[in-house]
Amino acid sequence: MQKAHSILAAKLEQELRRGVLILAVLSQLKDPQYGYSLRQLLGAQGMPIEEGTLYPLLRRMEEQGLLSSEWKIEDGPPRRYYVRNQQGNDVYRDLSAGWRALVGTIDKMMTEAA
Amino acid sequence: MDANDVIESYVRDVAAQLPLRKRADVAAELRSLLAEELGNGDQAAALAIVRRFGRPADVAARYSTPTAVVDPADTRNFVIAAVLGGLLIPSTNQRLPFAINPATAQVWFLAWLGALVILFAFKSWITRRRPDWFQWKPSQVRDHDRVRAVEQLALIGILVFYEMTYLFPGPVIHLLSGGRVAAELLSYTSDFASLQRMSWFALFVPALAALETMALVQGRWTRLTRTIEIMLFVLAGTQLGWHASYGGIFANAAAEHGARMACQLVGAAFILTAVYKIYREWGRIPSPSAGFSPATT
Asked: Residue B170 contacts by C-beta under 8 Å, 6 or more apart in sequence?
């Protein structure tokens, strides 16, 4: 029973994380990053994301007009670097404000319910 | 096959399922990222990485959201329409009273499925382009337990007609045909007129008519009357099905053929009505005043 509860909790936490992926990615793309380096960066900050999820997400965010990208050759093979563009900055600002308000609301609800 | 071959094969399988304009670019990026993930890993490590990444079709879908031919929200309606088509097209359902060439029936069934795919795909396309056309609109809430006098009287009339035709086929058909069918042609065989064969349907139909009349007087259906109604529909339909199967209703061959076909059609109507009512009962949504417990309805 305990195991079923843990599995369900892990699944729900995964869904919760999936909901904030875009915000997490936007937060880290003030400076250009390529997929692998961004994954390492997010992982190091406690937000591990599967590669199969992150790499296509970067593409979709670019198609949505949140990111700009370009191929660069620096110290290694050619890599595609992503960075927030102007629209991405605006959206990030709004999303951040929304997120903080949401965290405050949920926190208050949880405190009152405890 | 070394690690690079594994990655290359994977990248190509993913890219092959992407729109043409995206293929080269996504393939180059995916190749570079997977190589980065692999580092100096061997073939087994490469295999582990790409399997963790996901099936090529799934990954391609993440890169470029595929358009569903049938909108997932419409899947249930699509399946119901497909199954109904399969049941109603003659010869795909051997129990229907009329049949067409089985080969033609199969073509009709395939054509029906094809038409459904086109219809639903068109609806999905329109929904994507013009979502406002499919905005939800409130409809009149129908109280299914309230008896509607006109419908109820019509049903009672039909049941009385069935009973009269069943009990006195000769005079009734003679009258309906304007005298073209002689009443003598429609006399039951002694076997059919026996108590074991003929009496059951003759009892079920008046019972059903009495129940419908009671509901009309009371103005509402209850759980009990709904259940009895379904049972009577099933019993009456089954009786007619048996008559159609065993035959020996009329001595006259033409009358016998017509009677068996009529028994099949009317019996099927009874059974389909019962199935529909059972379906409705199964997925019944109690009215707000009735509360949640089905026992209160």
From this structure: B182, B183, B184, B185, B186, B187
